[in-house]
Amino acid sequence: MITTPLLSILRARGKQKYRTLKYPNGSPPLPDRFLGKPVISSTSCPKDCTLCITSCPVAAIQKTETLHIDMGVCLFCGNCVEACPNGTIRFSKDFHLASQDRGSLVIQQREGGDNVQESTVPSPRRDKIQLFRKSFKLRQVSAGGCNACELDCNVLSTVAWDMGRFGIQFVASPRHADGILVTGPVTENMKVALEKTYRAVPSPKVVIAVGSCAISGGPYKDHPEQMNGVSSLLPVDLFIPGCPPHPLVILEGLLRFLGRI
Amino acid sequence: MYLKLYFPSFQRYFREWGVSEMRNGESIALKDLPYLEFLRFKTVLQDAVRTGNRILGLWAVPSGKEYSMFGAILYPSTQSVEILHSTVEKTYPSLTLDLPCLHWFERDLSERFGMIPQEHPWLKPIRFYKGEVGKVEFFQVMGEEVHEVAVGPVHAGVIEPGHFRFQCYGEKVFHLEISLGYQHRGVERALTNGPNERSIHYAETLAGDTTIGHTTAYALLMEGLSGLLPSLHSEWIRAISLELERLANHIGDIGALSGDIGFLPTQSYCGRIRGDVLNLTALLCGNRFGRSLVRPGGVRYTIERERLDILRGKLREIENDTISAIELFFETPSVRARLEGTGIVPTDVARELGLVGVAARASGIPMDIRKDLPWGFFRIQSPSVGVHPSGDCYARAFLRWVEIQESFRFLHRITESFPEESSMKETFPSIDSGTRTYPFLLPDTLGIGITEGWRGEIFHVAATDREGKFAWYRVFDPSFHNWIGLAYAMRGGEISDFPLCNKSFNLSYCGHDL
Lengths: 261, 514
Hints:
Oligomer: heterodimer
Number of helices of chain B: 18
Structural class of chain B: alpha+beta
Largest interface: A-B, 74 and 73 residues
CATH architecture of the largest domain in chain A: 3-Layer(aba) Sandwich
CATH superfamily of the largest domain in chain B: Cytochrome-c3 Hydrogenase, chain B
Largest sheet of chain B: 4 strands, antiparallel
Helix content of chain B: 40-55%
Strand order of the largest sheet of chain A: 7-6-8-9-10
Largest sheet of chain A: 5 strands, parallel
CATH architecture of the largest domain in chain B: Orthogonal Bundle
Strand order of the largest sheet of chain B: 1-5-4-3
């Protein structure tokens, strides 16, 4: 049999098939142990029980009159679920985590029923974003990220997710970008580089914070070596929580941000 | 004296009576650590290296006006580690002159504590702990047509930040200097006085792409210090997840190399297949990087029979796709031609610089913690270790392919045997009524945890104080040893070789910067 590189390439191409995910059509591919949006049921907790609060490594759970969890801080480790004796806290499979508004990342204890489908997703603001609806170029800046968020952003460019089909793309130069996507808590040592990159992006521009670190500092929250997230430096237009966020969470966040879904 | 010169291993025997010899994951009371005079300390390190053993790390802790200095030697022949302990003044004679592999460690000491290793050939900061960021006196080549190329800290791709400074003559690179520290988050400092609720999350994010490797090293160390004993079942799950991590990253690396060569088919296939492997890790624990899977004392999630069947089925599918994608890569002549002879690190240089992991094995040095210092399930079964003598980008790519195949074989083999249902109940042990995620540790004890991550050896070492809290905690990511290897590989190469060399090493910035 004649083997030439060209034939081998064609043969391999046939074997590898068409693998781009159907999303946003069809059911999204999530593992059964995936921890999505947390739900705090209305069961009243025993008085003075603080097991969930003390089990949280980053103090994402607070109790005022009721319990609330800040997804922008949460590491989605599930310690609170393990600690809670009543099953008050659980993590749903809901992957609609992204939000333009920092405040709506805080999950409140449910007053009435325990319906997961109830939408807490705010509709996107349509101002400058309208401009980027069909073509959205991003410059990614890792500012202390551990390479997990970076890799799950990167994976969106592979044939499986193929973010390019929605007109979204990572570009090499901030000059070519419509905004920056920041991962990591913003280390002191990256502060200047991040600011410079932001300034190099032509206006109007957006800032997207991906991962708990970029939103609040994540596991490094309150370390003097970092800035507790991007908001301390730049105005953030979209928050995508997770540690790291599943690629689906990031893609869904971007698409909803652009008003594409 | 004669005895020392000619029979260094005898010396070792007489010196300690085997007291400070440790297995992986064991601990030793600080008072049992033999104390050596600094000259002796140096001689022992030199003897060890000369007889083909390796130095895992060198670190120091301030104690009063002086500094306690520690060194760790790995003896592959006995599968043991020896911890050396000495005391030095702020100014001390540099070890780097005789042991070049320690140069980065001494730079670290000097930056951290202001220690002065006298006659260190290249003393400068490595992480910008203090001082102005980005202000480095780079080594410069002078000459009329010599020019400098500066890259970073923000790079063109979606990767972590670091700065590269090339001294070029036309396309030719005379010298590359790598300046890191942009990712410094203060993890080691924060681990001190631990363990606490956050400690495990520091371990998981030391290098996010090596979550399993680092967390297993942390767990080993914690188990040695606390006496927790993970079950065989959880050791089995740790081994599976570690190999999945290796598979995902190696496959991704070959894809990325392919992209930098400009051979797009393998780039797009491998990019996707890498994601498929990450999804297998997510099948085990819900997270694609293995977060919340490994915990001191065990694992958080178990693998049931049905899950194992899914895992095995998917593994077969992924293996077929991988074979087709990567065989295509290596049978394409233009791909091989681009890789061969690019970025050579010869064996003797690799040994002198103290390279570890894939980079060392690709330079012909057989070393692998899974063999040299087995832990957990690798004490029962371990994959075979390959080496490649050429030390170029081809070697580093091909060795990854060899390791991918071996990891598949290993995974098939160990997923056939299935620890019995009776041992299935065990998951993460709830410590102290379930609210603490960490155990109590022995006081005044030194513990080690060493694993073979996909990049190479990961070394965690810590000592506790009187209350059983970490008095200090040190982490050595394989990248700490290997960044200098990348700089060396570029010598005399073309600047267009840099993406290839960089991907063939694929080192961690945050694992180095900590």
